[in-house]
Amino acid sequence: MTTISRAVPLLLTAMFAAPSLGQQQQAKPPISTYGVDVGTRTTTIPGMPAGGMGSVAGMMMPAGMGGPQKELWLGLRSSQRASGTPEAQHMIPPGMAMGAALPLIGRPPAQPGRPEYDEERPPEKPKARMLVYWGCGETIRPGQPKVADTEKMSLVEFGQALAGRSPPDRWSAQRNAQLVWPNEREKTPVPPGARLAGDQLVRGNATPDIKFAIGDQQDFMAPMEITAPGPLDGPVPASWTAVPTARGYFLQAMGFRQAAGEMIIWTSSELQDTGWGLMTWLPNDFRQRLIGEKVLLPPSVTSCTIPRGIFSGVEGAMVNGIAYGEELNLAQPPRPADPKIPWEPVWAVKVRVKSAGMTPLGMEERSGAHSRDTSASPPADAAAPKPANPLDDATEAVKGLRKLLPF
Questions:
Q1: Who contacts 38 (Cβ-Cβ below 8 Å, separation ≥6)?
Q2: Is 36 in contact with 72 (CB distance < 8 Å)?
Q3: Of the given ranges (128-132, 330-334, 399-403), which has the lowest mean pLDDT?
Q4: Helices 390-401 and 363-372 sit at what angle, rounded to 10 degrees?
Q5: 3-class secondary structure per residue, 127-173
Q6: Which range, 14-18, 335-339, 367-371, is most confident?
Q7: 205-214: per-residue pLDDT in tens?
Q8: Which terminus of the chain is more exposed, N or C, with fewer CB under 10 A?
Q9: Could you tell me if 335 and 344 are in contact, meaning their C-beta atoms sit under 8 angstroms apart?
Q10: Neighbours of 307 (CB within 10 A)
């Protein structure tokens, strides 16, 4: 007999805290907690249709960067005693086109001396000089950039210069989960036409049955296709396709100026923020508060100009964007409205959704430079020049951006 650990993350303590200050409701942690993280990722290359990266993405960029790509992460944590090796199945709707169920199994033992990868871990202090800009508009605002220089600052000063906001709880579907998908047994990618909306059932020897439904608001979000035409010197008018289920947006652009050894960061926030803690799923209340503070853009906004001069002289630059979806939290049985009634949930489910987009900056300028170069006239009998090929430009752009990608 195997027992899944009975430890419960601190998040659940807050999740099942008292609903009012007048009287504290007695609440037990659920037997099982289940996380569903849903994502869409898109890379837009000027002159190429969405998804047209082809072999360029496969050879030169991490998996899933050829866009649009649908992504799914599942994680189960339970205190129920299992008969045999703990395992479970997530019965999925037919619209997923991935069979009847996705298997949830335990992680392989961690290799000695090799720390487990944490996708949401903040970046380590870089050994470089960093310039931080923020705010939409054609001109750089007074007081910018904020400079972080590892050679001239203490750790405290460096941290203050790179100040940024992040969710109060760095939660994810697979953080602290005991049974997960994808896993060593099943790594099948999500099909492009998959739909997650519909009835869901998680069943196994390590959990009570978890039966719930996912609606259109928590289905895979539409792609966030970003365009940012114009020269790197700017101003760069960035815009993106409206995502119907988006509840807010955020942009972060990065570039590297080799001559000065400077990493440059710009965000769409009205307040200073590097954006490192915001390029991920956000809780509903936290997201709404940051929209009110003008750190995030409201769902009605689909454009933002990167000011002139921020990326002058850089060797490569890109802009990342994220569309935040509506988080869904369910429990069975639901919390009683009367605080006098104790709450003993059997299970709790959290579903988070986002859509992320990326595009390189300054590609039109590079392409146009080739077509405008008339410094040398070809011989009369020379073959006609080949038309500009967006794939070639994409290849060169991706090569330049590899060092900027955070993986």
A1: 71, 72, 196, 218, 219, 220, 221, 325, 351, 352, 353, 354
A2: yes
A3: 399-403
A4: 130
A5: CCEEEEEECCCCCCCCCCCEEEECCCCCHHHHHHHCCCCCCCCCCCC
A6: 335-339
A7: 999 999 999 9
A8: N
A9: no
A10: 20
Task: Enter the tokens of residue 350.
Answer: 């959290």
Q: Around Cβ 242, how many Cβ atoms within 10 Å?
A: 14
**E strand or H helix at 36, and its extent?**
strand 32-43
CA dist 27 and 236 (Å) reads 52
- Token pair of 287, please? 């997201």
Largest Cα separation within the chain, whole Å, is 92
Q: What SS3 state is found at 332? A: strand
Give the pLDDT mean for 163-177: 89
Residue 402 makes CB contacts below 8 A (sequence gap 6+) with 60, 61
**First and final C-alpha spacing in the chain:** 39
What CA–CA distance (Å, rounded) separates 208 from 79?
10
Closest alpha carbon to 96 in 253, 247, 201, 237: 201
Q: pLDDT (tens digit, 9 = 90+) per residue, 273-308?
A: 999 999 999 999 999 999 999 999 999 999 999 999
Confidence of residue 363 (pLDDT cuts 50, 70, 90): confident
Cβ neighbours of residue 312 closer than 8 Å, sequence gap 6 or more:
232, 233, 234
Note the pTM of the prediction, 2 decimals: 0.80
Identity of the residue numbered 121: R
CA distances (Å), 246 to each of 225, 287, 326, 353, in order? 13, 11, 7, 9
